[in-house]
Design brief:
It is built from seven helices and ten strands. The chain is α/β, with parallel strands linked by helices. A hairpin with a 2-residue loop joins strand 4 and strand 5. The termini are far apart. The relative contact order is 0.19. The structure holds adenosine-5'-diphosphate (ADP) and magnesium ion (MG).
C-alpha cells in the first residue's frame, strides 16, 4: 500500500451561482489503498466533493490533486485520459437499459478502444468478481436492485481504475443487498483499489470500522480512523 498520497485537497471551496458555498475550505489527504466513508446530512457537500474529484466541477478556490494530476491545470482534452483512473458508482445504477449485462460492462472497454480479444477476457472476469457470472444475457430490468448495482460496479471496475468513488451506492437497496455491496467494495479495496464511499448507512459505517470523514455545511467536521457515524445533534 505504501504512503503515497493519491488524493489531496488543499483549502478547497466551491460556490455555486446561488446559495451558501457548497464546500468551504476543505483539506483532505487520502493515501493509495485507503477505504474512506464520507458521511453527513443532505446538502453538506458530499456529492460536490465527488464531482470535484472527477473534474466534473472545478473549485472556486484551492487546489486538488488526484493521482498526480493537478486538476486546476488539467487541459480539457486530457480529461478523458484522467477519468480512466477513476471508477464511479451512483445510487440509481445508471445502466443502459437496452443493453445486456455483458454489453453494459463491455461498453466501458469499447469507449477506450480495448481490443475485442481483451474485452472477451476482461468482462467475464469482472462479472465473476462481482458474483454475476450467470447473468451475461440479462437486461437491467430483469435484475434485482442489488444485481443492477453489481453490474454498475463491474462497469466501474473493468478498466482497472486506481480509485473507486461511490455516491450513496446502497441508497436504493435493502439491508441484505446493502451489506453485500459494501462487502464487495471492501474486497475490491483489499485487492488494492482506493475506495471512497458516500453513504447514509449508519449501521454499516459503525460496523465496518473504517476511516470516516464527516461533513457539515461544506466543512469537514471530523476525520477519524476506525470511526463511526456521529450522533445526531
Ligand atoms: P450532499 O451530496 O451532501 O447532499 P451536495 O454536494 O449535493 O450535498 O450539495 C451541497 C450544497 O450545494 C447544497 O446546499 C445544494 O443545494 C447545493 N448545490 C448542489 N448542486 C448545486 C447546483 N448545481 N447549483 C446550485 N446549488 C447546488
Ligand atoms: Mg449527494
Amino acid at each position: 500500500m505504501g504512503n503515497e498520497e493519491i488524493i489531496t485537497l488543499e483549502n478547497v471551496s466551491k460556490a455555486y451561482a446561488t446559495g451558501a458555498p457548497a464546500l468551504n475550505g476543505v483539506n483532505l489527504h487520502i493515501k493509495r489503498g485507503e477505504f474512506v466513508f464520507v458521511v453527513g446530512d443532505s446538502g453538506s457537500g458530499k456529492s460536490t466533493l465527488i464531482k470535484l474529484l472527477l473534474r466534473e466541477l472545478i473549485p472556486t478556490s484551492g487546489h486538488i490533486n488526484v493521482m498526480g494530476y493537478d486538476l486546476g491545470r488539467l487541459r480539457h482534452r486530457k480529461i478523458p485520459k484522467f477519468r480512466r483512473n477513476i471508477g464511479i458508482v451512483f445510487q440509481d445504477f445508471r445502466l443502459l437499459k437496452e443493453l445486456t449485462v455483458y454489453d453494459n460492462v463491455a461498453f466501458a472497454q469499447r469507449v477506450i478502444q480495448v481490443s475485442n480479444k481483451d474485452i472477451k477476457r476482461n468482462v467475464p472476469s469482472i462479472l465473476a468478481t462481482v458474483g454475476l457470472a450467470g447473468k451475461y444475457k440479462a437486461k437491467p430490468r430483469q435484475l434485482s436492485g442489488g444485481e443492477q448495482q453489481r453490474v454498475a460496479l463491474a462497469r466501474a471496475l473493468v478498466n482497472r481504475p486506481g480509485i473507486l468513488l461511490a455516491d450513496e451506492p446502497t441508497g436504493n437497496l435493502d439491508p441484505k443487498n446493502s451489506w453485500e455491496i459494501m462487502k464487495l467494495l471492501e474486497q475490491i479495496n483489499e485487492n488494492g483499489t482506493t475506495v471512497i464511499i458516500v453513504t447514509h448507512n449508519r449501521e454499516i459505517v459503525n460496523a465496518m470500522q473504517k476511516r470516516v470523514v464527516t461533513m457539515k455545511r461544506g466543512v469537514i467536521v471530523s476525520d477519524e480512523e476506525k470511526g463511526g457515524y456521529a450522533d445526531e445533534d
